[in-house]
Amino acid sequence: MLLPIYLYGQPVLRKVAEDVPSDYPELPQLAENMFATMDKASGVGLAAPQVGLALRMFVVDGDALSDDYPECAGFKRCMINPEILSESEDTDVKDEGCLSIPGIYEPVKRPKWIEMKYLDENLVEHTERIEGFAARMTLHEYDHLDGKMFIDHVSPIRKQLIKSKLSSILKGKVNTSYKSKAIR
């Protein structure tokens, strides 16, 4: 089932999400719905707050980016109650976008690698070192669980330059090719 993607301005996007309880009903189905919603929207990641749920859960699938970023080949994960164990001091800067902030892309500095601990949709625990663009995707979605968005990482001058676009999203003056939920 496709879920509506909540757009910039929706309060759930700024909440710190709560841990997913082990008895959460139909967790594998929620993961499947999130993957389907992300795919339909041509995204590479989607966090539960983006579909209106203040839960510490996200999905990522970087396979479509594997020609440019080989580390993304086969990188399809559902991460529940993730925890960053460590991250590199080395960073790089690349443009990021977000399904909740359509049409805006800005450069963001992120660590080159991270080590994560998380549960998959079957509640099996994993610890994994994630590198390159796969780490960037993971950190982008992880931010959503803490009520942060990629625009929080851009410089004040860049924020000023995108202010009118953000205002348009807040006013519901944005078109998406996917089912979305703006504040109106």
Lay out the secondary structure:
Layout: E1 5-6, H1 27-40, E2 45-47, E3 57-61, E4 76-87, E5 91-98, E6 101-111, E7 113-119, E8 125-131, H2 132-145, H3 156-170, E9 180-181
Parallel strand pairs: 1-9
Antiparallel strand pairs: 2-3, 3-4, 4-7, 5-6, 7-8
List the keywords:
184 residues; alpha+beta; five-stranded antiparallel beta sheet; two-stranded parallel sheet; globular
Poorly predicted regions: none
Rg over C-alpha atoms, rounded to the nearest angstrom: 16 Å
Please work out how many helical segments DSSP would assign.
3
Arithmetic mean pLDDT: 96
Written account of the structure:
The structure is a single chain. The protein is of the alpha+beta class and 184 residues long. It has helices at residues 27-40, 132-145, 156-170; strands at residues 5-6, 45-47, 57-61, 76-87, 91-98, 101-111, 113-119, 125-131, 180-181. It has a 5-stranded antiparallel β-sheet with strand order 2-3-4-7-8, sandwiched between helices. Strand 5 and strand 6 (101-111) form a beta hairpin. The radius of gyration is 16 Å and the shape is globular. The relative contact order is 0.22.
